[in-house]
Description:
Pfam family, one: TP_methylase
Domain Tetrapyrrole methylase: 6-213
Protein name: uroporphyrinogen-III C-methyltransferase
Largest sheet: 5 strands, parallel
Order of helices and strands: EHEHEHEHEHEEHEEHE
Family: Belongs to the precorrin methyltransferase family.
InterPro entries: 4pyrrol_Mease, 4pyrrol_Methylase_sf, 4pyrrole_Mease_sub1, 4pyrrole_Mease_sub2, CobA/CysG_C, Siro_Cobalamin_biosynth, Uropor_MeTrfase_CS
Amino acid sequence: xxxxxxxxxxxxxxxxxxxxxxxxxxxxxxxxxxxxxxxxxxxxxxxxxxxxxxxxxxxxxxxxxxxxxxxxxxxxxxxxxxxxxxxxxxxxxxxxxxxxxxxxxxxxxxxxxxxxxxxxxxxxxxxxxxxxxxxxxxxxxxxxxxxxxxxxxxxxxxxxxxxxxxxxxxxxxxxxxxxxxxxxxxxxxxxxxxxxxxxxxxxxxxxxxxxxxxxxxxxxxxxxxxxxxxxxxxxxxx
Length: 238
């Protein structure tokens, strides 16, 4: 029986190719095959020109590759290739469905390594020059999403924290704002929305909670929403 290859779950970071880790870039340059997400940019894929490329994109509201099929493809690739990279947007361990892929690979006896990446919340805070924590104002942060697994109930309750960061928040952000207003949060609570974080078409919008409750215009890429007192604009901030 031929030896199985090794699979690397690599975080691509928020979008810009030069924000991947040095280890992640090295593994891409050594990869025999790369299974990549829909949000991975062509510039990032240029780091692995030698590899066979397999798109396993998953985008909300669009046709996408089923997770069970992705798991199967990873196992099959480990039987054919020595170095297999599963390239995920952001960090594999945060909203990256890594648990399902790890389970499938471990069950097949395949060696796997996880390489972290910069998660979008951190990159968005940097892009907006807006720290998520602030001494005397915010000392806790929660990352959350309204998306749930198929056949699982939604989670209407919001985390109790100083700063809220909603991933994949384009369509769901208005409902979040409505719940926060119902809980008594002030209508002019600062909100920062970042679309296409770190990419050439990045867009940063400053709103209030009341603005957000009226909904966001349809976006052209991934949207992240940050809410809380720490997001207040600093004096003299451009």
